[in-house]
Amino acid sequence: MALLRAFLKKAPAPPLPVGIDLDRLLEIAHAQGVAGVCGYLLQHDAALPEKRQMQLAALFYRTVFQLSKAQPPLEAWRRKLAAAGIPHALLKGAVLQALYPVPELRLCGDADFFVPPAFLPQLKALLAAENVTLLHEDDTVIYVHAAPLYLEFHPTLLPDASNDTKALAAYFGDAERYMTGDPLCRDFEPEFHFIYLLSHQMRHFQTDCPGIRTFMDLAVFLQHFPAAPTLAEKLQDLGLYDYAAGALALTARWFDVPSPLPVTVSDGDADAVAAYQEEAARKSDFERTELNKEKTGVVIEGVKGRSE
Known about the structure:
Blueprint: H1 2-8, H2 22-31, H3 35-42, H4 50-83, E1 89-91, H5 93-96, E2 111-114, H6 120-129, E3 133-137, E4 142-146, E5 149-154, H7 166-173, H8 190-207, H9 212-224, H10 231-238, H11 241-255, H12 267-296
Parallel strand pairs: 2-5
Antiparallel strand pairs: 1-2, 3-4, 4-5
Helix pairs in contact: 3-4, 8-9, 9-11
């Protein structure tokens, strides 16, 4: 947590505690999708052996290389969508990358697009004309592999609305209204995207565990787009206030980015959530590795850790 906080503050890495198990630290970092960040901060730590510094530098450069390969084809797909007359808005990782202190260190396993449902026929025609592999399709998403990218096209954001919150469902059901041409926020109004990130994170807590990086995302977003004075009232109206207050209180404690909501969290509760996240990530990492062994008989390096 101290390393990640330093990264967001563009500060030097804090000294590693005496006797810390660096392998365990990196294991946790891999599971949370932030190994590249830790490598970036620690690669020049003079207190570490040269071999360790080289290992950490490799984590950093591997992450940068992975993300640098994805950017040109992603921009090419944006041009293809625009040329086909398909309005679209990027969501989550592909947007947040541009906001991070080192954009290439915000891992993004796939790119998420919102496409208004009226333009699904044009989208399907475009995908049929391109060399893509359809991985999954239902009423809420079209998921394809367009080497080297995995792309998700969402005609609706309703799966990220709580089932019992009609106001939130109506808000996300009218997503097209909040699309803009802002080049940084790519292409939703900041408040709408921030509320979407909160709701998406909440859905993960209802099903598995969102990981510490989703809290980093909230902190980074607030650094760039300070919340409007009306945010609290909007969250109340949408039925998302209680969850948002807790999530942003944790974000404030862990990353020293003030919450726009007047709610605090105790040390004990913050530690409990962090421990839960670590355990959930470890279990998920183990299950992915075991599933891979079951399918292939081997463990493929690189499949471990959160990618989305």
